[in-house]
């Protein structure tokens, strides 16, 4: 399946595995790249040497393109970016802050830059500043989110942007992928679906909680404070949301949330930690290999696109 994104990155299918803090490391990343998409190592919350090691491990596991995600809120982002320029990955996905000051350094090192943006204004700004492609991420996504939905972003952003646009948030099957491509996206970024990959290190209890979840089970904490995080409803989110509604001070909320990603995703405390996952939960029912997930996504996307041709003739 050829698009401007597959051409830009030199990949077979227009599927990027979104960087996922605490869970996307060398095994998941290389499995996605080997299966024809592009994997991303998440650097958020990790130290520089951990990320360097994962890059080196990934290079041993695949000769295909892969990327690294930088969370611009991280205090050591400058050191991480300097390290990426030494290690030379194919592309860097930047989110949660202003990515523009880092473009030149990365591009000078031969690294493509693909920022994640939540609005048309930021999409225009990163395009003007030389981004190679951009990800629009809707609030259906798991993890830290903006306010617009994926459908609204696809509608608002694509007509005004010339570089390849990658759609993220709520895309968990081939029909969603086909819809994004029909809207003009050149690729999709998927996170939640890959949480159930056999190559994903997410704790088995968190995988099971996702399998058991129904469509309305994800909630957003921190929305009223401008930093929403989507995950599965549990003891922690009930407590947090009650405090948030009662107008609790920022510090109290921050203390409650600190460390919950690692607790839920890595340690498997799925009640007191947070299992970050998006809204498209119903297709997330089975643990499969990355290759099976990608084959299924592509097979259904191609079938949906073929059938869409019939609609056009009616
Ligand atoms: C467990 C988890 C952790 C995530 N961590 C990050 C992160 O560290 N940096 C980032 O830019 N996006 C992060 N995301 C967002 C994903 O990269 C991706 O854009 C999103 O999952 C797409 O929506 P979906 O979950 O509906 O597929 C995370 C998502 C999940 C589910």
Topology:
Blueprint: H1 4-9, E1 15-17, H2 26-34, E2 39-42, H3 48-61, E3 66-71, H4 77-87, E4 91-95, H5 103-108, E5 112-117, H6 120-128, E6 134-137, E7 143-144, H7 150-157, E8 165-168, H8 174-182, E9 187-190, H9 192-195, H10 204-212, E10 218-221, E11 229-232, H11 235-245, H12 250-257, H13 260-265, H14 290-313
Bound molecules: flavin mononucleotide.
The site of flavin mononucleotide (FMN) has 29 residues, from strand 3 and strand 9.
The main β sheet shows up as:
8 strands, parallel
- CATH homologous superfamily label of the largest domain: Aldolase class I
Sheet with most strands: strand arrangement: 1-9-8-6-5-4-3-2
Q: State the distance separating the first and last CA atoms.
A: 26 Å
- How is the quaternary structure best described? single chain
Tally of DSSP β-strands: 11
Order of helices and strands: HEHEHEHEHEHEEHEHEHHEEHHHH
Total separate domains = 2
The gyration radius over C-alpha positions equals 18 Å
Q: What's the CATH topology name of the largest domain?
A: TIM Barrel
> What is the average of the pLDDT values?
96
Class per helix and strand makeup: alpha/beta
Q: How many helix segments?
A: 14
Q: What is bound: which ligands?
A: flavin mononucleotide
CATH C-level class of the largest domain:
Alpha Beta
User: Segments where pLDDT lies below 50 for 5+ residues?
Assistant: none
The percentage helix is: 40-55%
Q: Can you tell me the overall shape?
A: globular
Q: Which architecture of the largest domain does the CATH hierarchy give at level 2?
A: Alpha-Beta Barrel
The proportion of residues in beta strands is 5-15%
């Amino acid at each position: 399946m050829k698009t401007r994104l597959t051409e830009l990155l030199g990949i077979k299918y227009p599927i990027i595995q979104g960087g996922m803090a605490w869970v996307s490391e060398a095994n998941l990343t290389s499995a996605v790249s080997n299966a024809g998409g592009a994997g991303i190592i998440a650097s958020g919350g990790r130290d520089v040497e951990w990320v360097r090691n994962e890059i080196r491990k990934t290079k041993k596991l695949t000769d295909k393109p892969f990327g690294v995600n930088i969370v611009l809120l991280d205090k050591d982002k400058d050191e991480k970016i300097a390290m990426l320029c030494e290690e030379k990955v194919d592309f860097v996905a930047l989110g949660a802050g202003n990515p523009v000051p880092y473009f030149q350094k990365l591009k000078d090192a031969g690294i493509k830059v693909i920022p994640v943006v939540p609005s048309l204004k930021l999409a225009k700004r990163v395009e003007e500043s030389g981004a190679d492609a951009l990800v629009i991420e809707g609030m259906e996504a798991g993890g830290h989110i903006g306010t617009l939905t994926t459908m609204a972003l696809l509608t608002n952003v694509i007509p005004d942007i010339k570089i390849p646009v990658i759609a993220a948030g709520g895309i968990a099957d081939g029909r969603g992928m086909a819809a994004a491509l029909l809207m003009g996206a050149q690729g999709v970024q998927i996170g939640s679906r890959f949480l159930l990959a056999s190559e994903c290190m997410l704790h088995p209890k968190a995988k099971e909680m996702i399998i058991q979840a129904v469509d309305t089970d994800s909630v957003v904490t921190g929305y009223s404070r401008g930093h929403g995080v989507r995950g599965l409803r549990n003891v922690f989110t009930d407590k947090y949301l009650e405090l948030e509604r009662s107008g609790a001070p920022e510090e109290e909320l921050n203390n409650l949330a600190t460390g919950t990603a690692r607790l839920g995703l890595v340690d498997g405390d799925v009640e007191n930690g947070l299992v970050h996952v998006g809204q498209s939960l119903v297709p997330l029912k089975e643990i499969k290999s990355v290759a099976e997930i990608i084959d299924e996504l592509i097979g259904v996307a191609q079938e949906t696109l073929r059938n869409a041709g019939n609609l056009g003739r009616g």
